[in-house]
Fold this protein.
Amino acid sequence: MSSGRWWRWWCLLIGAVFVVVVASSSASQTKQNRLVSRIAFGSCSDQADPQLIWNAIINFDPQVFIWLGDNIYGDIKRPFKLFGKERTIGPWKNVPRFVPTSKEEMESKYEKAKTNPGYSRLREKTEVIGTWDDHDYGLNDAGKEFGGKIVNQRLLLDFLDEAQNSPRRKQDGVYVSYTFGPVGRQIKVILLDTRYHRDPLLSDGTILGNSQWTWLEKELNGPASAITIIGSSVQVLSNLSAATGPLFSFECWGRFPRERDRLFKLIADSKRDGVFFISGDVHFGELARYDCATGYPLYDITSSGLTKAVEKAVPPPLHFIVRFVARLTPTTMRVMDRNCRYSSCIYGQPNFGAIEIDWDATPVTLRIEVRDINGFPVTGVKVSLLKLQAGSVDPVATVKAGEYRRHCTLEVNLPWLVRYRLAILFYSAVAVLLLALIGFTYATISISRRFLRKCKHD
């Protein structure tokens, strides 16, 4: 073949590559500039459970869906055993309740979740992004000490269809950010990794680690956006462990108070408006609000879970007990509203989160809700973006010493009688039951003795 023909072939090849690159760049730019007004999110989806909620999510017609962790349940949960060779609970516990599984088993579980018919239909029309929590990280309540995190990071990114050349495949952790929409109507989504670098619980150490903190500071101080959504696998505002201990506890930012204060300060110092949180993990839906961090209300909308939910753990006739306990649990952050499905404003059935932005309203309005398996709201709030700007709450009025203020006073600062009323009620009830049992036993023995004496006498 002559050099002239070789030259023509090379020109054609270079031209074809150029066209593909330009077309790809143009498609990516169009996708990035597309106006986004509906976002759905969820967490805690056991691949082995019925996946009935996808129809409601699809009917909501989100342009983006965000996984907030526990996207599968990859670890192995042993049954409760108080006695026997392997005891998972009690003072004689000798084996852990949760153990990690193999890479092959994790891959199988991800495949089952990814090929679910409902989720597959969502993926066809919706951009899916996400982070992880403990059960897809590989082990319940695990942090930086977990040895399987490197392999499991790759498995999560495969599940999310992350590009092979993505920076997320080279960094330590799955944190990432996205920007959607045209200038002036942009939504920035920041997804945190609360597992890879997290110190042990009760250490008050770090959640994010140095590299992720540096990255987050850069993201928050970057170009402005109308709305900034920070996704955390665990709750940021609510610290129910402070009010439910020692009966049970939840993982949350409130158990790392210095890290949470650092997060609030970083948001305030960035002077970034329109920030709110979305979270999962706890197996119920809740809306929390905090007024004493940034000069405007910070909201945290918790949706958990898509299949896992606290009321599913007990028989239906006992659901009222769960709702009673939820109502009795002290909380300073939860948004209490008469439009909530239940008086506690906690929803313990399967649910998903829904975000709607009305860009045509003046001013622009934001609706964030928890929705049930049929797509109906169970709790939520509608707020103007003007209310999510510095100065919309008075920072001086919220910090008066010794004063209780809803959406400002932390749960750990509640009077002890209020803070521990759930535990007091529980232990009081146990004491009454024990006394009743002792009384019943004593009465039974006394009656039996009298009866035997009478029989002997006769």
In short: The chain is about 35% helix and 15% strand. Residues 445 and 451 are 10 Å apart (CA to CA).
